Amino acid sequence: MSEVNNRIAVLRAELKISQQELADAIDVSRKTISTIETGRFTPSVTIALKLAGYFNVAVEEIFSLN
Q1: pLDDT per residue over 6-65, tens digit each?
Q2: Summary count for the chain: helices (H), strands (E)
């Protein structure tokens, strides 16, 4: 089975924002951001698109299959 990898922590670090700031910006909980970053939760398409919009990148620049 494929595992979904992501670059959310890297992108957050580049912008110097916290998990809470990102969560507030895309209207999810900080725990959601944390579990996505650690790979324990694969986000819905809606959340993935919100993240891509926030970071102004394509979804494929955030998420990839291992």
Answers
A1: 999 999 999 999 999 999 999 999 999 999 999 999 999 999 999 999 999 999 999 999
A2: 5, 2
3-state DSSP assignment of residue 4: strand
Residue 43, domain CATH = 1.10.260.40
Q: How far apart (Å, rounded) are the C-alpha atoms in residues 15 and 9?
A: 10
Question: Which residue from 36, 37, 31 is spatially nearest to 9, judged by alpha carbons?
Answer: 37
Taking the whole predicted model, whether its pTM rises above 0.85 is answered as: yes
Tokens standing for residue 28 = 């999810």
